[in-house]
Each structure stands twice: as structure tokens, then as C-alpha cells.
């Protein structure tokens, strides 16, 4: 909130009579009436300025208090988050099964998967042996297209499907979906 400019007397003062009227004293009463009226307007302007300044200062104080409160709340939230993170880190390092499973689950949740790949998984940690069992639900074999391609026959004005052999479908399904894709397999965004 910007501070308003305090009124100045000169902005309200009427012009003094000049020339012959000033020498002869003509228009003196009118000038004095204008001065009296200017004093009233100046007093009103000062009162408006005083009220506006009080309002501005009250708003400023309220905004400062709100900011301090929001800042303190944010610091409390950061401290609570960091405390929780430290507890989780210590539990993971201590080999607590729930902490290890939660961490590995977060890693899998944050991973990118190929198009059509489910993000469902279950994790079990065995602290005695240090083994981790990860069960990931794979998409069905039907995700691999049954068509290898399409051929347009111009003289018959028709498109025919080139079927993909079952053996090839099984090989594509069994291959690593992130590295070995066939030319006509479905592609993710930006590929």
C-alpha cells in the first residue's frame, strides 16, 4: 500500500488579488472568503489524509502479521517434513522392513513406464537375508498388436492387414519394452 502525499496549504490557497484591484483594495472581502473556504477544504483534506494514513498503517501491520504467521507456518512445515524424512532415512538404514518397502515403492512409483504398462506392484523385504521380493503386474500379451502392418491394394482400392505371427508376438512381449521395440510397435509420446 502506497503512502499518500500529505496536503500542502499552497495547493488550496486562492490567488491574491493583483494589479489595480490590490492597490485600491477591491475584491478584498471576496479574497478573504475564498481564503476561509480554502482553510476549510485544507482542513478536510488533512482529515482525509490522516484517516487514509491510519487505514494504510493498520493494513500494513495486519499484512506484516499475516506474513510473519505464514512464514512461521512454512518453517514449521519444513521442519516437520525434514524430521519425518530423517526418521524414514534412519529406519531405512536400520533395515526396518516397512521403511525399506516404502522407499522401494516410492522409487517404483516415480519410475517411468512404457505406454500401457500398469504401475501396480507389491514389495516384501526380508531383513534376515536382505532379500527383496518385487511383484509387478505386467500388461497382458494382447498389448502387442496382432497386425505387423497394412498394405493398400490400389487396383482394388482396399487395405489388407499383414498379420503378425504368434511367435513374433511372444518374442516382442518377452523383450525389454524399454529398449527393444519393433518398428511398428506402439510408441509413447515424443518418440
How does this structure look, described?
This protein is an alpha+beta fold and 191 residues long. It contains four helices and four strands. The chain has helices at 19-24, 28-93, 97-110, 166-174, and strands at 121-126, 131-136, 147-153, 158-163. The strands form two sheets. A two-stranded antiparallel ribbon has the order 1-2. A two-stranded antiparallel ribbon has the order 3-4. Strand 3 and strand 4 form a beta hairpin. Helix 2 crosses helix 3 (97-110). The chain starts with 18 loop residues before the first helix and ends in a 17-residue tail after the last helix.
* Structural class assignment: alpha+beta
Mean pLDDT: 84
Head-to-tail CA distance between termini: 51 Å
Shape: elongated
Regions with little confidence, pLDDT below 50 for 5+ residues: 178-191
H/E topology pattern: HHHEEEEH
Q: Would you summarize the structure shown here?
A:
With 191 residues, this protein is of the alpha+beta class. The protein has four helices and four strands.
Topology:
Layout: H1 19-24, H2 28-93, H3 97-110, E1 121-126, E2 131-136, E3 147-153, E4 158-163, H4 166-174
Antiparallel strand pairs: 1-2, 3-4
Helix pairs in contact: 2-3
Primary descriptors:
191 residues; alpha+beta; two-stranded antiparallel sheet; two-stranded antiparallel ribbon; disordered C terminus
Amino acid at each position: 500500500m502506497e503512502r499518500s502525499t500529505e496536503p500542502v496549504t499552497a495547493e488550496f490557497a486562492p490567488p491574491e488579488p493583483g494589479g489595480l484591484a490590490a492597490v485600491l483594495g477591491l475584491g478584498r472581502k471576496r479574497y478573504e472568503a475564498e481564503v476561509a473556504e480554502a482553510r476549510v477544504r485544507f482542513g478536510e483534506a488533512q482529515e482525509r489524509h490522516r484517516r487514509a494514513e491510519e487505514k494504510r498503517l493498520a493494513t500494513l501491520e495486519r499484512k506484516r502479521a499475516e506474513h510473519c504467521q505464514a512464514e512461521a507456518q512454512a518453517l514449521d512445515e519444513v521442519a516437520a517434513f525434514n524430521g519425518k524424512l530423517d526418521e524414514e532415512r534412519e529406519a531405512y538404514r536400520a533395515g526396518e522392513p516397512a521403511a525399506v518397502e516404502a522407499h522401494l515403492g516410492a522409487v517404483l512409483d516415480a519410475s517411468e513406464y512404457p505406454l500401457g504398462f500398469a504401475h501396480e506392484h507389491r514389495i516384501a523385504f526380508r531383513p534376515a537375508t536382505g532379500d527383496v521380493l518385487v511383484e509387478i503386474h505386467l500388461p497382458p500379451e494382447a498389448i502387442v498388436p496382432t497386425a505387423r502392418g497394412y498394405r493398400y491394394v490400389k487396383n482394388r482400392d482396399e487395405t489388407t492387414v499383414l498379420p503378425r505371427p504368434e511367435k513374433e508376438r511372444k518374442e516382442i512381449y518377452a523383450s525389454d519394452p524399454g529398449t527393444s521395440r519393433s518398428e511398428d510397435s506402439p510408441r509413447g509420446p515424443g518418440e
